[in-house]
Amino acid sequence: GHLVESGGGSAQAGGSLRLSCVVSGFTISTYCMGWFRQAPGKDDEGVTVVGSDGRVKYADSVKGRFTISKDNAKNTLVLQMDSLTPEDAAMYYCAAGWTAGGRCRPAAALAYRGQGTQVTVSS
Q1: pLDDT of 1
Q2: What is the pLDDT at residue 11?
Q3: Which among 45, 54, 69, 114 could bridge 5 via Cys, Cβ 3.0 to 4.6 Å?
């Protein structure tokens, strides 16, 4: 599978960004998909996942502000990020598949990932 993220950039605190992950090689509707992020000097942090059954999980830090969705017609995963804070600044990665144990999370442990897109948030 091939995953290509876009949509990163700079935003003011309180602003919004919309990340996209265009997928080729498999059909996202049948896959677990997710987003994780990594800030400089910090470990990977799972942001959100959506299972093949449509069930969604969010990290507490983004609950109520971020929304994950699958655009099956475009085979694209979307992350809508609202009410951004400087703590959201990181490299964001799209991920797909399942972990070695057959689970849908954490997102950083899924089988496939993109190259990442940078998000910066100024206060």
Answers
A1: 80
A2: 98
A3: 114
